[in-house]
Amino acid sequence: MILLTGATGKTGSATAKSLNESGIKFKALIRNEEKRAGLESLGAEVIMGSIDNTESVDQSMEGVETALILLPNSESQLNLERRLVDSAKQAGVKRVVKVSSIEATPDATSPIPRLHLESEEYIKQSGLNWTMVKPNFYMQNLLASAATIKDQGKIFLPMGEGKTGMIDTTDVGSFLAKVLSEDGHESMNHEITGPNILSFYEVAEIFSQALGQKVDYIDVPLAAYKETLGQFLTNQWHLDAVIDLFKGIAEGGIEDKTDTYQELMGESPKSLEAFIKENMFIFKS
Q: What is the model's pTM?
């Protein structure tokens, strides 16, 4: 049996859908009753409870062989992930799959990659079999710029000339479903990117071509962007951590794409152009 945490988010729900399409049974620990029916329609055994409730977590681990750790970035994330690992070990779970970050390297200084790295190390020291799945930047993050793309033909972000290997969350979900449901991924760090490494100036060019209208990337000073973002992110830790992550992209980001997705899945991950066309109704007036 497979256990999903984070099953109601974009990546987790994509994982659930992919497992269902492959006829694989799974559990999901969720706290939103409104999302229960949707997961049950995908064949999930739903456990209602919070990830920060020890009893709920322990209940969800019963009879599980492989557990997915997929939590949103937060100040309490590391403690929550450690608790999941402890519960999995106590319940006799054989393997943990963690969604981490390609930026989670020993030289990382940004809070979010450092948090992921510490969690990875805790998992590796637990004695459980483990697999790390490490994407870079989700295409779905661009949905936050949909209004300015549609109304002004502009993308306002503080990324400078930095580059990312952005990937669609549906591809990550498909990848996770495969890793969760088959053997051969123990002690592996799967770094996955989309098919191209792109600057945000190049992202704007792709939007222009796909939408048939001019779209420009406006490089916003980091301090000004933080002030704007602070109107929406009221948690100071989260705000500081996101800005620090963006600073890392602006200072260079990543340079090389990986072929991990294509090698495992037998097909190329979705291109940004295809993602835009799928979401044309959001981006175009």
A: 0.93
